[in-house]
Amino acid sequence: MRNVTSYLFTSLDGVVESPERFMRDDLYTDVFPLISETIAKQDAVLLGRNTYEAWTAFWPEAQIQPFAGFINGATKYVVSKTLTTLGWSGSTLLSGDLPDAVAALKRRPGMTIGVHGSVSLVQALLVAGLLDELRLVVCPVIAGQGRRLLSREGEPIQLDLRSARTTPRGLQFVVLQPRT
Q: What is the pTM of this model?
């Protein structure tokens, strides 16, 4: 069975929305090895509609490696109730019941399915028990405002720490596994 792994940037106060707003330029040097490590295990991605629309306007022509080569070559599953067509090569629309669609993807052969960005999608996968791993790049900043990953009602979602390390410039790379 395939795993579903998210990869998000977060501030110390939990903001995951628009990391380009709070990520300092000097920290990007430390990001490339982290993203390389993550995408080396992936052959597909799940994207929400907003992320798909933003990325389809940028990544097909981008030269930022290693991610551009990965995202343009990976199978992209787009979760949307409003889109009817997709123009980005390698994209497939997932509509209908999200838990059923993702559970079916997990049963297919292949490598890990990544969720990059797509905050609402990560939240839905966490709540549905379909996210196998949460990879967070914790930036040494207090963003103050913006959407937080774990702003939700209901029972706490318990996580187990799988690994944690600090990069030379002070990023924390934390890998967590939701308890089932």
A: 0.92
